[in-house]
Specification:
Globin-like, 15 helices, alpha+beta, single chain, five-stranded mixed β-sheet, two-stranded antiparallel sheet, Heat Shock Protein 90, about 375 residues
């Protein structure tokens, strides 16, 4: 559970919330054992795949049970259940009945564990029932969207994004030509100017190359194909160092990075691009003076990277189509780009999920949740059907 939620829930006056918070890992362990024994498609899967987003769902349920917290159900301010249904469709052979069964089992375990220490109130029972009913509905919607999604090709969506860096390259090259034309012997002052111009050229050319690659990958994903992944061993700290190096300075200066050494197997270029896109998205949705936090944790063989900003807000009605429709909101207008759509497809192809939670009280948290070892998931289907 994130720092912003752990204290209020752990110290809540509501016994059920405190118990659920304290027993989350115990609940997950018992639930995992039952699911593997009772759900046919689960027994052969890795534990990390079966567990999926259930820890985040339980955190939301604990918050909903807490009378001091604003949530009414576990998924009020997040798309975690939709992500679960989508991942079940993409990565497993689960059918709708098996998704319902795993939620039923989790509900039984939660109720039993709370009842061991405290009698459930009428409010507790209502919150639990509504939370699971809503989670099942949302998971089913996402599950069928993945299986029935129409594949569309999006080509040229980055034209607006490419215009600015290309213009900067053109301006810099013109200035360089002017300097060369005016002086046969370049003075030291002009030489310094020339050095700055060349640096600008290299920076903008690299930026254009990254955008072109994003466009190519986006088009590949949207026509139902897979992007090319290069899964290699490495450490997440190296990925985050590269992210900080390549972000524009005005954005990187806002980032609070909580680096942690976690080794694993993933595509470093794709992972770096995904984290950069999350940071850039939160930067677009928040005031220039606000901070953006990157945190890393591990749980049951999964790597979790969260990017959050307390001042960033995304309307609830846009939480899902922010990913599904490639919609990206700038500060003053909405426009289409690869953005989080490509980020989501990349993470899904590595067997993971990309979830977003946003509320006026707590801002926005975007969470990448993937197996620490993605080698066996490089061919996982994505939301676009790839």
């Amino acid at each position: 559970m994130s720092d912003r939620l752990s204290a209020p829930v752990a110290n809540s006056k509501t016994p059920s919330a405190r118990i659920l918070y304290r027993k989350r890992d115990e609940i997950l362990t018992e639930w995992l054992e039952r699911v593997k024994n009772e759900v046919d498609s689960a027994w052969a899967l890795l534990n990390a795949v079966v567990i999926d987003t259930m820890p985040v769902f339980l955190d939301g349920l604990a918050e909903a049970l807490c009378e001091d917290c604003p949530k009414e159900t576990a998924t009020d301010t997040s798309n975690v259940a939709q992500e679960h249904g989508g991942e079940r469709a993409r990565v497993t052979k689960f059918g709708p009945d098996q998704i319902i069964a795993e939620f039923r089992i989790l509900s039984e375990v939660v109720i039993a564990k709370i009842a061991e220490e405290s009698k459930l109130t009428e409010r507790d029972q209502n919150v639990i029932q509504k939370s699971f009913d809503k989670a099942i509905r949302e998971s089913m919607v996402a599950y069928f969207l993945v299986h029935g999604r129409i594949r569309e090709q999006m080509i040229g969506v980055l034209s607006n994004d490419l215009r600015d860096p290309i213009g900067a390259v053109r301006l810099s090259s013109e200035l360089l030509q002017q300097l060369l034309n005016e002086e046969t012997q370049i003075a030291s002052e002009s030489r310094a100017d020339l050095k700055r111009v060349i640096t600008t050229l290299k920076t903008n050319i690299a930026r254009v190359e990254r955008m072109v690659q994003e466009l190519i990958d986006s088009s590949v994903v949207q026509v139902g194909e897979k992007i090319s992944l290069n899964i290699t061993p490495g450490n997440i700290s190296d990925v985050l160092t590269a992210v900080m190096h390549e972000l524009d300075y005005d954005i990187s200066a806002r980032v609070i990075l909580e680096k942690q050494s976690v080794s694993g197997f993933w595509d470093h270029r794709a992972f770096k691009r995904t984290v950069m896109q999350l940071v850039q998205s939160l930067a677009h949705h928040s005031p220039a003076e606000s901070s953006i936090k990157i945190a890393v944790s591990t749980l049951h063989g999964r790597l979790i990277v969260s990017v959050s900003c307390t001042d960033a807000q995304i309307p609830a009605e846009r939480l899902e189509n922010l990913f599904q429709a490639f919609l990206r909101a700038d500060k003053e207008e909405s426009r289409f780009g690869t953005g989080l759509g490509l980020a989501r497809a990349t993470i899904e192809q590595m067997g993971g999920s990309l979830a977003v939670e946003s509320s006026p009280e707590n801002g926005t948290v975007m969470t990448v949740d993937i197996p620490a070892d993605t080698r066996s998931f490089a061919d996982a289907p994505t939301s676009t059907g790839a």
